[in-house]
Structures are given as structure tokens and as C-alpha cells.
Amino acid sequence: MPAASTSPVKVAVPPPPPNGPWVAKCKGLPFSATIETILQFFDGLAIADDGIRIRTNEQGVPKGECLVTFAAEGALTAALERTRQVMGHKFVTVQLA
User: Fold this and answer.
1) Residue range 29-36: mean pLDDT, rounded
2) Dihedral of the CA atoms 35, 41, 46, 49 (nearest 10)?
């Protein structure tokens, strides 16, 4: 039986819009995710001022999703490559919003 591959899975990433806004939708976040943990997940990438919006339900309970607005096209491109990385104990999906 062949050994399982441990290399990361490469996902085809669509190109971001050339003139912005550069927004990513993140799904699968831990319900305990905060703006700080999202900033840590995207460490090194330029995020716009007030660029993180954590989605909640009608009662204000987090839904495990957020929208992140990046300050540049390159930051969004790099963010999309972080899909399927782990935040806390959950795999996060990052896609164009």
C-alpha cells in the first residue's frame, strides 16, 4: 500500500479583481474566533482599516464566517492561498467574496 502524501494540496485560485475592493470570505472559523485571531491567521498581509467583519446570526452569535477587506491585490492573492489552513482546531476556507 503506497504511503499517504503529506504535501499540501494546491487549490486553483481565481484572480482577484484588478481595482478592488479586495475582499475574501472566510468560512469554517471557530465560533470563538475574534478580530485578533483573524489578524493572526492573516499575519503579514495588509488588511484595510476596519476590514474585518465577523458574521453573526440574529441573536449576535458568531456563524463561523467573516469578510476580510485587504489593502492591496497582492495581499488578497496571498490570503486566498491560505485556504484549508488551520485556525484553532478547524480548517478555514478562504475564497473571493
Assistant:
1) 97
2) -10
- HEC states along the chain? CCCCCCCCCCCCCCCCCCCCCEEEEEECCCCCCCHHHHHHHCCCCCEEEEEEEEEECCCCCEEEEEEEEECCHHHHHHHHCCCCEEECCEEEEEEEC
Q: Of 41, 94, 89, give the one whose Cα is nearest residue 65.
A: 94
| pTM beyond cutoff 0.70 | yes
Bin 35: left if φ > 0, else alpha if -120 < ψ < 50, else beta.
alpha
Cell numbers for 61: 452569535
Q: Which residues of 36-74 are buried (b: 16+ CB within 10 A; e: fewer)?
A: eebeebbeebebbeebbebeeeeeeebebbbebbbeeee
Rounded CA separation 76/14 (Å): 11
